Amino acid sequence: MQPVVSVFPSLGTSVRRGLRTVLLASLIAGTALDGVAAQTVDDDGGVQTQQLNLPGDLTIFGKSDPNVRKATAIVNGRIITGTDVDQRLALIITANGGKVSDEEKERLRVQVLRNLIDETLQIQEAAANDIKIDPAEINQSYERVAANFRQSPTQFDQYLRTQGSSPASIKRQIEGELAWSRLLRRNIQPFVNVSEEEVKSVVDRLNAAKGSDEYRIGEIYLSATPENMDQITANARNIIEQIKQGGSFQAYARQFSEASTAAVGGDLGWVRPAQLPEELAQAAAEMQVGQIAGPIPVAGGVSLIYVMDKRKVLTADPRDALLSLKQLSVNFPTGTTKEQASQKAAAFAAAIKEIKGCGQANEVGGRIGADVVDNDNVKLRDLPPQLQDILLNLQVGEATPPFGSITDGVRVLVVCGRDQAPDANAPSSEQIMAQMEEERVNKRARIYLRDLRRDAVIDYN
After folding, report:
1. What is the pLDDT of residue 313?
2. What SS3 state is found at 287?
3. Quick one: pLDDT at residue 5?
4. Domains (ranges, CATH) in the chain?
């Protein structure tokens, strides 16, 4: 029997946190709940309970109706069903290529239920402030999501169903994000002020920090109390493991992060260590691009951080240079062995050495039967890291060493031109002010949601 959770606002009534934490822990650990009769197995293999004597070999007459949904939570009369949880969970599993263990699914299921409760509270609080999202606006956002998958809304509907989810699940999430964002703009943003003196102070610090490191950081923030800190930390570690196994950081941030940046995949933008909480700044300074760290204890919970990129403050980054390239490639016939591929690659490399500038690339390519393709305005940063390091040190007219595989063939890139990255300019006062306002709104939004939870009564049956 699934627990039924009723969440009702109650001014001045405290939340029964202990009971909620015990239930969540029992769900994660897979332990039995009170009220479930103990089972024993009789000599014939039948299962006996305190009141039933069931045969071990039984036949089901009829079938269950999958359209009959049992409530997992009731939030101010709004029912969250097991199907709602399953469909939202399916989105996460899809984002991870379906590679989620059964044990991890159960942990995620608990977190998804918590997120759905928060989402419902946010929608209800928005409605209480006369904020209701027009279905047409939700559909427009849904169409943009479908377009990101290069599908029409109808095609995307079908795709979601094949993955075990539904259009309604994504539309509900879109509604929650729009409603909460609009509520924050009405109830919080107008009361957040950043003075010109504060902005000037940031500009001065930027100029003083010229040449120092700054990072593009992704964050997943999970709130926690002393009572459930161990459980939330365990959930955070499992999220890290899933991401390390190929899961999408942005997808996990969108589903689980309780920061307002969840809507943009947890992207904090470019920040310097001094702009981060001390705990996060210390971790970021020790990380390389592409690494993830956590769970890191912070005020009110834990954070996971992902270093998406790194650069120097107010300093041109050579990886922002634009290149003009010629690509010469030779494919291997089906059935080519590794030895044959190595021999052909060696011959290809020897021919490439004859190239003296891009003017000869087409001639040499034609002689050895290579395909030649021009690529202009290629940002060095967008190329694979292995090629970035090589191309950084090549002059115009020089070629990379051959690279590729048996299936993809062998190829080289010839540098035909390079537009150096422009000098980095300090962000404008307006940009700095907007970022500072966003950070303060984000902080108050966390407090707002915390208060919504605190002013709720949660009953378990």
Report:
1. 77
2. coil
3. 33
4. 1-33+69-210+426-461 (1.10.4030.10), 212-312 (3.10.50.40), 318-419 (3.10.50.40)
Question: What is the spatial distance between Cα 253 and Cα 272, in angstroms, rounded to a whole number?
Answer: 21
Name the token pair of 65: 């109706």
User: β-strands 71-75, 5-9: how paired?
Assistant: parallel
CB 110 within 8 A of CB 23: no
- pLDDT at residue 29, rounded to an integer: 28
Q: At what angle do helices 167-187 and 82-95 cross, to 10 degrees?
A: 90
193 is written with which tokens?
């002020």
- The number of residues in the chain equals 461
Confidence at residue 69, expressed as pLDDT on a 0 to 100 scale: 44
Q: Give the C-alpha separation, 58 to 63, whole Å.
A: 14
Q: Which residues contact 29 (CB under 8 A, 6 or more apart)?
A: none
SS3 call for 378 = strand
What CA–CA distance (Å, rounded) separates 307 from 242? Answer: 17
Query: Sheet of 71-75: strands edge to edge?
Result: 78-81, 71-75, 5-9, 456-460
Q: Which pairing describes strands 53-54 and 71-75: parallel, antiparallel, or unpaired?
A: unpaired
pLDDT of residue 2: 35
Nearest of 226, 118, 12, 29 to residue 445 by alpha carbon = 118
* Contact present, 217 and 268 (Cβ < 8 Å): yes
DSSP category for residue 74: E
Q: Which of 220, 219, 259, 225 is nearest to 118 (CA)?
A: 259
**Collapsing DSSP states into helix, strand and coil, what is residue 2?**
coil
> What is the spatial distance between Cα 286 and Cα 332, in angstroms, rounded to a whole number?
43
To which residue do tokens 């902005």 refer?
A: 199
375 DSSP β-pair partners = 325
Q: 0.70 exceeded by the pTM?
A: no
CA distances (Å), origin 194, targets 22, 291, 391, 438: 42, 33, 43, 10
Distances (CA, A) of 274 to 210, 277, 288, 393: 13, 8, 18, 32
pLDDT at 152: 93
**Cα–Cα distance, 298 to 179 (Å, whole number):** 27
Question: Which strands, in side-by-side order, build the sheet including 371-379?
Answer: 371-379, 322-330, 409-419, 403-405
CA–CA distances in Å: residue 134 to residues 138, 178, 255, 287: 7, 10, 23, 43
Counting as low any pLDDT under 70, the low residues of the chain are 1-71, 96, 422-426, 456-461
Return the amino acid letter for 395: Q
- Amino acid at the residue 181: S
Which residues, at least 6 apart from 43, have a Cβ–Cβ distance to it below 8 Å?
A: none
Q: What is the pLDDT of residue 424?
A: 63
Please state, in angstroms and rounded to a whole number, the distance separating the CA atoms of residues 75 and 104: 26
